[in-house]
Amino acid sequence: MERRIMLKLERMHEDLRNGNGRVMEAVESRPGRTSEAAEEDMLEGPCQNLADLEDLCKKIADRSFKKKMIRHLSLLGGSNVGDGVRRMLKKIGTNELWKGFSLKGIKGKRPFHSLLIYDVVIRACSRTFPNVDCQKVEEAIAVTLKHAPHRRSTNQVLIPDDLVEDEEEEEEEGEDEVEE
After folding, report:
1. Model confidence over 149-163: pLDDT tens digits?
2. Which of 102, 113, 128, 159 has the fewest other C-beta atoms within 10 Å?
3. Which of 99, 129, 94, 128 lies closest to 112, judged by CA?
4. For residue 26, how many other CB atoms are within 10 A of its CB?
5. What are phi and psi of 143, to 5 degrees?
6. How far apart, in whole angstroms, are the C-alpha atoms of residue 77 and residue 90?
7. How many CB atoms lie within 10 A of CB 120?
8. Closest CA to 115 of 167, 174, 179, 47
9. Which residues of 65-102 are buried (b: 16+ CB within 10 A; e: fewer)?
10. How far apart are CA 35 and CA 71, in angstroms?
């Protein structure tokens, strides 16, 4: 229940920030707001490249930031562990970034388990899903990283290149027949 309320408040906060700047300036300028504003700034967007991810991992070395990050990611929730892990990794980085990682670093990819963010994701999942053991969370991370190269965006549909070429050839053949 508490997680749902926090998520709703975060969404309302984003809506207010996007819709009416003066309201947010008044809310953010009130005393005692600095820690919450810093938490909001911790993940303005997902990491786009390795440099961004390394910067995030350097920030996680700070214990207070790490605790805030765990709390922030645990609020993302999910219907099951796999869904929760996907949401967390989507919030942390893009699929373009994750396609270069695997859990243990096999097949020429970088190892995810050696990153500081790995511990944060494990702890956030343990907090969100208390009855799930660490091995299940690791499996969910491995599956999410495995499928990252095949996902571009939630709004885009992947069309294989050979199908696109076939359609173009059919259109050209149709134009040739009309000319004759």
Report:
1. 777 655 444 555 555
2. 159
3. 99
4. 10
5. -65, -40
6. 13
7. 23
8. 47
9. bbebbbebbbbbbbeebbebbbbbbbebbbbebbbbbb
10. 13
Residue 67: pLDDT band with limits 50, 70, 90:
very high
Could you write out the DSSP letters of every residue in 111-125?
A: EGGGSHHHHHHHHHH
**122 falls in which pLDDT band (50, 70, 90)?**
very high
User: Which residues are paired to 47 by β-bridges?
Assistant: 93
Q: What is the pLDDT of residues 74-103, one digit of tens each?
A: 888 888 999 999 999 888 988 888 888 888
Count of alpha carbons within 13 Å of 25, Cβ hemisphere only? 3
64-68, 71-75, 154-158: least confidently modelled range: 154-158
Lookup: tokens for 64:
């207070």
Q: Are 74 and 126 in contact (CB under 8 A)?
A: no
d(CA 5, CA 149): 33
Residue with tokens 């660490």: 134
